[in-house]
Amino acid sequence: MPALDSAFAKSAALAAGFHKAGVARAAPLDPGPLDRYLARGFEADMAWLRSTCDQRLDPSRLLPGARSVLALALAHHPGEPAAALPGAAQVARYARGRDYHAVMKRRLADLSERLRARDPEVRLVASADIAPVMEKAWAERAGIGWIGKNGCLITTEFGSWVLLATVILDRDLEPDPPHPERCGDCAACLPACPTGAIPEPGVVDARRCLSFHTIERRGPIPEAIAERAAGWGFGCDDCQTACPWNRDRSAAWDPDLAPRPGQSAFDLPAMLALTVEQYRRRFWGTALARARYQGLVRNALLAAGHSGDRRLAGAVRARLDDEDEGIRRAAAWALGRLEE
């Protein structure tokens, strides 16, 4: 049987459903960028970034004897900006379909089987947004794309509408050349950020990022952020929408990640009245579950405050005594806006 080589690994990745694949040496990453990021406190409440530094910088901490990293990209539906309709709040494009974790897990399992069929003795660690792996750094090093000024991985074919994964292997595979930076003089993404969360090219301050606050943050959202969250109920695509590489994208994308009906934007009256049981039926199995029930209701309250629709005041007022502090404070803020 022929040996496992770079050409086979990349062709197997495409056969498993990924849209791009590249190979990099599994040498430790430069710790400088991550050290500087953490020193400035830009990780916000994401303590795991600090506690897993060693694993993130050195693949051999996850797979002793690691020799190569197979970097992968899966394109999701590029979609369109959800219409800014009264009584609705937008959802980030990547979260409008099925949970990408489940889709990537199935693709990675398929790929791992293909690699082991070629080389039964190969040892590998496959992951997508779960293990402490710096996917963007490896994707850039493996030639898939480059890290843009908005901090997203950008590809020439799919823009930044991609999801990333890696397979660390204990085999020497021929590496691909790193991808050159192609943002050039363009900096459209920096002023597009509604909260000024991109203090310098390629660096995102999570403490000010709407995606962090509407997805990862538990509890209340600071008022300074709430004031600028207009239109968003889950995540934020503003810095990507402004990117020229993301315009007129009609290339192939994973059909499992197609937007589901009613999931491109939240209907605010329904979200304000959402029960835990309704949350479980509607959002489990989607990326939206990451924000949890409390986070989605909190986000809907902020969107209601921005809507200016006084018909929502009764539903907002009903949340003032909620047991969750984040919901209570969001309701008070939103009611203040609606009653101005």
Fraction of helical residues: 25-40%
Q: Judging from the principal axes of the Cα atoms, what is the shape? A: elongated
Quote the beta fraction: 5-15%
Number of helical regions: 15
What profile does the largest beta sheet have?
A: 4 strands, antiparallel
Low-confidence stretches: none
Q: Which class do the helix and strand fractions yield?
A: alpha+beta
Q: What radius of gyration results from the CA coordinates?
A: 21 Å
Give the overall average pLDDT. 94
Strand runs, count: 9
One letter per element, helices H and strands E, the order comes to: HEHHHEEHEHEEEHHHEHEHHHHH
Order of the strands making up the biggest sheet: 1-2-7-4
N- to C-terminal distance: 74 Å
Give an overview of the whole structure:
By secondary structure, this protein is an alpha+beta fold. It contains 15 helices and 9 strands. The protein has helices at residues 6-15, 32-39, 47-51, 53-57, 100-118, 135-141, 189-192, 210-216, 223-226, 238-241, 268-272, 276-283, 292-307, 313-317, 325-338, and strands at residues 20-25, 68-75, 88-91, 124-127, 146-147, 153-154, 162-169, 232-234, 265-267. It has a 4-stranded antiparallel sheet, with helices on both faces. Strands 8-3-9 form a 3-stranded mixed sheet. Strands 5-6 form a two-stranded antiparallel ribbon. Strand 5 and strand 6 form a beta hairpin. Helix 1 packs across helix 5 and helix 13 (292-307) packs parallel to helix 15.
